[in-house]
Amino acid sequence: MRHEEAHDEASAPTAKIIDHPAVPQGEAELISTPDRLGEFMRHVRTQGCFAFDTEFIGEETFIPKICLVQLATQSQIALIDPFAFEGTLLNVVWDAVCDPTLTTIVHAGGQDINAAQRHTSRPARNVIDTQIAAGFMGMPWPTSLANVVHAVADLRLNKGHTFTEWDSRPLSKQQLSYAADDVRYLPLVWQLQHHKLETLNRTAWAVSESEESLRTSDEFAPESQVRRAARGMGLRPRVMTILRELVILRYSIAQTKDLPPRTVLPDSPMLELARRKVASTEELLDIRGFPRQTVHEFGTEILAAIQAARNLPLDRDLVWVTPEEGADDRTRIDALWSIITMRAISMGIATSLILTRGELSRWYLARGAGAAPLFAPDSWRHQAIGQWLDSFLDGNETLRLGWKDGGPIVP
């Protein structure tokens, strides 16, 4: 997936740069020499806070190919051409992103932060994602950069460059302007968000959620990929177990071939492999959409993975067994979901930042059987919702709702 899609409706160049002390003016400088890069990074460190973004291509290689790095402080903005730097010359950038003494501002910045974490082998600290911060200020989560800039700074950014060849050189003036606007307004956005979050006493929540989300966004999580590949189908647990083994093998093959996992084996044919429990090369070739190159190179390994999964102990399937909601359970869970949603909206927190209905259902059905609490006691979720919910379920709280200015309120 290209980075523009990750940013959803990310900004295109504006007709006029807003005149504000927190917005760097003029065209972004394109940096292609170590001396100038070092000079700009020294400026970043004197400011203590900077915006960070990358443009990358993710559909050609296992690790996304970074084609441009964007940086901005309140007074300066620069674009760095990674193709002009060899070896470890860009480490000065990655080190700054992972430096806990600096504040790094991103928007939907999972892939961008992952690049820095890969190069430094350190987790990013003191990072704020303005998309997440917006979720603590009454905005939906996730939401686009353009929407956040408009909501926070009352500035409309145009849309454009949905697809572009960031690895082509030279980059056009329009491409460079587009890329610059992905960071140009982030220092201002975070300045305004920070002020609002401070009045709401939620700054620590936004920082905590940003760090946790960005730190784990690059982890390989086979179970979540299995559920995504299953597309919500009511598959048998053993099929899900086979699918999991195929997901793990796909990941390994993709690393070996330096290809994106879904290029090695797309979700749909992989799901069909698991459902049919194929046992021969002929059956592999009969699967529609199965890459023939993968069959020829790795058919033996794929068949062995399917057979091994079929022979796993049956208790391995338990991870996929979700307790069924009876009619009474469904009514109560729906009611609780509505209550949590209404309370979250009334507090100005995006419900999807807190939990999903599936998570609520699994917790509710296991409640009273020694299950873990819905939220970790030291988490912001417990502070925001969990404490009140525990008291509510124990009969010590009541819920009174009102409606004002088009939304629910807690009187």
SSE arrangement:
Blueprint (H helix, E strand, L loop, with lengths): L2 H4 L22 E3 L2 H14 L1 E9 L7 E8 L4 E4 L10 H7 L5 E4 L3 H11 L6 E3 H6 L9 H9 L19 H12 L1 H15 L2 H14 L5 H9 L6 H21 L3 H4 L2 H10 L4 H5 L6 H19 L16 H21 L3 H4 L2 H10 L13 H14 L8 E3 L2 E3 L2
Parallel strand pairs: 1-4, 2-5, 5-6
Antiparallel strand pairs: 2-3, 3-4, 7-8
Helix pairs in contact: 3-4, 6-8, 10-11, 11-13, 11-15, 16-18
* Shape assignment: flat
How large is the radius of gyration?
24 Å
Mean pLDDT, nearest integer? 91
State the low-pLDDT regions, or none. Answer: 1-13
- Per the CATH scheme, the topology name of the largest domain is Nucleotidyltransferase, domain 5
Q: Helical residue percent?
A: 40-55%
Tally of DSSP β-strands? 8
Q: Major sheet, described briefly? A: 6 strands, mixed
Strand content: 5-15%
- Termini Cα gap: 45 Å
In CATH's first tier, which class of the largest domain applies? Alpha Beta
The helix tally amounts to 19
- Going by helix content, strand content and strand pairing, the class is alpha/beta
Strand order of the largest sheet: 1-4-3-2-5-6
Element string (H = helix, E = strand) = HEHEEEHEHEHHHHHHHHHHHHHHHEE
How many structural domains in the coordinates?
3
Provide the CATH superfamily of the largest domain.
Ribonuclease H-like superfamily/Ribonuclease H
Secondary-structure arrangement, i.e. CATH architecture of the largest domain: 2-Layer Sandwich
